[in-house]
Amino acid sequence: MTTATTAKHLQDTTTLHNGVAMPWLGLGVFKVEEGQELIDAVKEAIRFGYRSIDTAAIYNNEIGVGQAIREALAETPSLKREDLFITSKVWNADLGYESTLAAFETSLEKLGLEYLDLYLIHWPVKGKYKDAWRALEQLYKAGRVRAIGVSNFHVHHLEDLLKDSEIVPMVNQVELHPRLSQEELIKFSAEHRIQMEAWSPLMQGQLLDNTTLQDIAAKHGKSIAQIILRWDLQRGIVTIPKSTKAHRIAENASVFDFELSAEDMQHIDGLNQNLRVGPDPDNFNF
């Protein structure tokens, strides 16, 4: 099993608690609209060596992601569907047992895939996520999805879910970056063997003028984005930076040829302010 600090390659994986291998680094496509830019970005990432693509029903781009996957597979005969790790998420309006099962089928159809590698509950909608989780457990037991998990769940949401669940989530994908380091959640997840995954790892560009990060980046001859992504990896966190630009897709993946020192890590840890750029999972109304 590859551990975070020894990940040496873009295709290195962490092993989820059910034995499924999940790449440490993937491409996120949040806010990338259907169209050629999306298709080109996904194909570019796969061409560069990415094997993990993260989408969601609410992104309204599953059709384009699916098309890009088909084109990438057709253009690279040595690449097989099972070499890829594709994630999607059930949206809040579809949370519930039957409605989640139906939403899964819709996502699969749009993606043009026979199975998903990871399916997540997108947000912890009170009174709904337990029924949705039963649906995910059913999909998992039926072999329709290789791993199941949640997104934007706090510790108390996880504790509540675990009281009634048969299967412990394999993944919890949350907002996580140097201003929101999620220490409590990381500790809880480690105790329950739930793999943490970061969305918005670069805080939507809000950290690019941070002097602490600038100093560390200069020392390593790397960009601030690369420093942050490396910090994720060394903390054992799967990360999915979003980009549609070929040079940025390549840059974000070039984080396996250096290591941050313990001192570097401490300086970055010290930037935490429990500050969010996205909604608070305890206070959202969608």
UniProtKB/TrEMBL annotation:
Keywords per UniProt: NADP, Oxidoreductase
One matching Pfam family: Aldo_ket_red
Sequence intervals crossing the membrane: none
Family: Belongs to the aldo/keto reductase family.
Entry-linked Gene3D superfamilies: NADP-dependent oxidoreductase domain
InterPro entries in alphabetical order: AKR (IPR020471), AKR5G (IPR044500), Aldo/ket_reductase_CS (IPR018170), NAD(P)_OxRdtase_dom_sf (IPR036812), NADP_OxRdtase_dom (IPR023210)
PANTHER family recorded: 2,5-DIKETO-D-GLUCONIC ACID REDUCTASE, NADP-DEPENDENT OXIDOREDUCTASE DOMAIN-CONTAINING PROTEIN
Source organism: Paenibacillus taihuensis
Chain positions recorded as substrate binding sites: 122
Record bears the keyword Cytoplasm: no
Site annotation Lowers pKa of active site Tyr: residues: 89
Keyword NADP appears in the UniProt entry: yes
Catalytic center residues: 59 (proton donor)
Domain NADP-dependent oxidoreductase: 31-272
Protein name: Diketogulonate reductase-like aldo/keto reductase
Signal peptide annotation: none
GO MF entry, a single one: oxidoreductase activity, acting on the CH-OH group of donors, NAD or NADP as acceptor
